[in-house]
Amino acid sequence: MRGDRHRLARSRTKLTVRIDATRERVERIVEEVAAVAFGGGTVIFPTDTVYGIGCDPMRLQSVERIFAAKGRPRDKPLSLHLASTAELLEYVPNDERAQTLARRFLPGPLTLVVKRPAWINELVSAGLPSIGMRVPNHALCLALLERCGPLAATSANRSGACAFTGEGEEGCLPEADLFVYAGPTPLRAESTIIDLTGEHARLIREGILSADMIGRRIRLLMGEPS
Question: Does the pLDDT at position 4 exceed 50?
Answer without folding.
Answer: no
